[in-house]
């Protein structure tokens, strides 16, 4: 009798349901642990160091900001939406008990916003005494073509030109520091899949139909070309440039794409992404931290680091010096780097400069001493 009751209990719908749930839950965690990659934890104490993270209100950017804060760093969250940033910043402070986390508005598609961001960090009550690292994380993908106020398609403006301008405006400050600096660009291995630089249509004006995924892919290739060229030009400086590929990650990047607007297609895409090894942000952030703070990468200029924190080769397009130079010149022009740098110098009470494709010409003697203007001349 007791055995029969036990058998009935084990075969009841509730028991079968709970057993199935337990097996599924356990199977998910086994799968998740295999997709997370090899274990890694950054043990460095980052007290006294300062890092700028773009796009820090969600996804890998938020995870990066929180991990840095856990290790006692001062973190500048460079974000487009200040209200959202304040909310995320509050959560990070509560989780880490580190109050040295700050919101600063910086919209990478708005070049005036970038200049204002750099100006505030360079002089006044928000001035930073040092910068130890910059994480170029912010990125966007959109389903239809939209342009910023300068007439530049927003994907290329945000994913490449904004980072180009931000780096250029901060460069004098970084080069004048005695401490080493690491600039980390987040990128993806999709740039290796039938992708080449479309210099004749960088602004996505001539395509019959706008393909947001393809435009995103080419914008990341442009970012990779810039990263590679920047690492070459800064080889003998205090700055190291690295690229980190976090792998397929759960994020809101594709939220504006057509496939995400319908319930059924959204869930089908989730199932496909799950099967292809999509990782949670707390796992995907590992190669970013490794590139940014780990002692093993302290001298690793020009490295492209994959999701397992292994060095991977640059593709043939990125190795093409002529294409890198051509993109660099176009980026100087489209971002109006010369105008913004001259305005920044004027706002900071320093000597203005003129920038052309041929280089940099100081308009007057630098008010900060001889070194910085000549370093800039060498760089560009």
Description:
This protein has helices spanning 2-10, 13-35, 59-70, 82-96, 111-122, 154-176, 212-233, 263-275, 281-284, 286-293, 316-319, 321-334, 337-347, 370-379, and strands spanning 50-54, 74-79, 101-105, 133-136, 181-186, 239-244, 303-305, 353-356, 359-362. By secondary structure, the chain is α/β, with parallel strands linked by helices. It has a domain at 106-246 and 285-336: 3-Layer(aba) Sandwich (Rossmann fold), CATH 3.40.50. Helix 3 (59-70) runs parallel beside helix 4 (82-96) and helix 6 (154-176) runs parallel beside helix 7. It starts with a helix and ends with a helix.
In short:
By secondary structure, the protein is of the alpha/beta class. About 45% of the residues lie in helices and about 10% in strands. The chain starts with a helix and ends with a helix.
Radius of gyration, taken over Cα atoms and rounded to an integer in Å: 23 Å
> What is the number of helical segments per DSSP (H or I, 4+ residues)?
14
User: How much of the sequence is in beta strands?
Assistant: 5-15%
| Known CATH architecture of the domain at 106-246 and 285-336 | 3-Layer(aba) Sandwich
CATH class of the domain at 106-246 and 285-336: Alpha Beta
Measured as a percent range, the helix fraction is 40-55%
The assembly state of the depicted protein chains is single chain
Helix/strand order: HHEHEHEHEHEHEHHHEHHHEEH
Report the CATH superfamily of the domain at 106-246 and 285-336: NAD(P)-binding Rossmann-like Domain
Largest sheet: spatial strand order = 3-2-1-4-5-6-7
Q: Kindly name the structural category.
A: alpha/beta
Mean pLDDT: 83
Q: Indicate the low-confidence ranges by residue numbers.
A: 24-36, 254-276, 361-374
Strand count: 9
The major beta sheet can be summarized as: 7 strands, parallel
Organism: Caenorhabditis brenneri (Nematode worm)
Pfam family, one: adh_short
GO molecular function: oxidoreductase activity
Keywords: Oxidoreductase
